[in-house]
Amino acid sequence: MVSTDKAVNPSNVIGCSKRICEIYIQSLAKSIEGAPERNTQFITTRFGNVLGSNGSVIPLFREQIKHGGPVTVTHPEIIRYFMTIPEACQLVLEAGAMGKGGEIYIFDMGKPVKILDLAKRMIRLSGSKNIKIEFTGLRHGEKLYEELLSKAEHTKPTHHEKIMIANVREYEYQHISKMVDHLIRLSYEYDDMRTVKKMKEIVPEFRSINSPFEAVDTLLDKIEI
């Protein structure tokens, strides 16, 4: 399962969705551990943005520069981790080959890149003149920076210097499968607030940022009190 750094302390629905996937896959792997009929290893890889992939900023910036701008950046201080498509593919295959089942592999992505610097560099390399950069503001649930590990998590090394194993909280498959089944049933009701509330119950560290779903956090806080 290919996850994302957005799964760590998620602040939006996609990040929480990926964290739920991680939990489900890991608990499924642990539930069949040692079973004689087991012939599948379920593992997860967690990493950041892939340069040039669908939805990444580089194709967007390229198109914006081609049409004379402006190049849109959400915030002047926003940073992200990046890797190339070949690098991501190689590390996913390596993790798959070394996996025994139930691991969440984290890739060393080096230093994060400031998106504003990336935009300036692409404008300069294009040779275009008078291309303006426009700041559009952070989108719903968007962080200034992403994390590959939460504060409560630690890693173990592998024989590959760029691949580590995350030590994360583990869940019982029977428990989590019931919660996921409930979440799926809720999704068919098309009630965003109820669906997100259930997601936050599964992943308590999911805290919304700049989003209507902050109201759910307030409600859950009152219940806990």
Walk me through what this model shows:
- The chain is of the alpha/beta class and 225 residues long.
- The chain contains 7 helices and 11 strands.
- A 5-stranded mixed beta sheet has the order 1-2-7-11-10, with helices on both faces.
- Helix 1 links the parallel strand 1 and strand 2.
- Helix 1 crosses helix 6.
- The longest helix has 19 residues.
- The chain is globular and about 65 Å long.
- The mean pLDDT is 89.
Describe the main β-sheet briefly.
Answer: 5 strands, mixed
User: Structural class given helices, strands, pairing?
Assistant: alpha/beta
Task: State the separation between the terminal residues, measured CA to CA.
Answer: 36 Å
Query: Can you tell me the overall shape?
Result: globular
- Number of distinct beta strands: 11
- Percent strand equals 15-25%
- Which value, in Å, is the CA radius of gyration? 20 Å
What's a concise summary of this model?
The protein is an alpha/beta fold and 225 residues long. Helix content is 41%, strand content 15%.
Question: Which helices and strands appear, and what pairs or packs with what?
Answer:
Blueprint: E1 2-4, H1 13-31, E2 44-47, E3 49-50, H2 57-66, E4 71-73, E5 79-80, E6 82-83, H3 85-98, E7 104-107, E8 113-114, H4 115-126, E9 133-135, E10 154-157, E11 163-167, H5 173-187, H6 192-202, H7 214-224
Parallel strand pairs: 1-2, 2-7, 3-6, 4-9
Antiparallel strand pairs: 5-8, 7-11, 10-11
Helix pairs in contact: 1-5, 1-6, 2-4, 5-6
